[in-house]
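Residues pack. Consider this:
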Amino acid sequence: MVYIMKFKVDGACRGNGRRGSIAAAAACLYNRSGSYSSKTNYLPQNNPVPTNQRAEISAIVLALEWALERYSELSNEPYIKVRISSDSQHAIDSMTTWIYKWVNNGWYTAAGLPVANKDLFQLALDLDDKISAIGEVTYTWIPREKNQDADDECNEALDNIQ
């Protein structure tokens, strides 16, 4: 049996990278009827200062954690397919292409610079590996207009803390 989980994720930051900025990550898990459940997380306000990119990767982490949580609640341990869609080309490219190059380069970019947000990418890779042991994860870029649910969840979370 195959159990499919389809997520749309988004991250948002107001005041991107500046002191006092706020950020949130959201994941929407869709059921067969097209309705969804959502989870949001707030990013810490310092150390490091929130950015849009940290929020986007945090949203992927949120979806991966949620997928593993859901899997642990299943009784028959099926093969799982986790589908994560994001409107962040950077986040998708990072998880599908660059992350493996960074690992091979000791977490340095091709330009010889340390990978930004290494902590989040390492966590995402660890979670991805756990899911890959029981199924598969795919990452897909979608246009922003097709990611409205996750975008709305992020903005609502940010509105609640301002």
In short: Residues 52-73 form the longest helix (22 residues). The chain has four helices and five strands. Residues 2-161 form a domain with the Nucleotidyltransferase; domain 5 fold (CATH 3.30.420.10). The first strand starts at residue 2 and ends at 14.
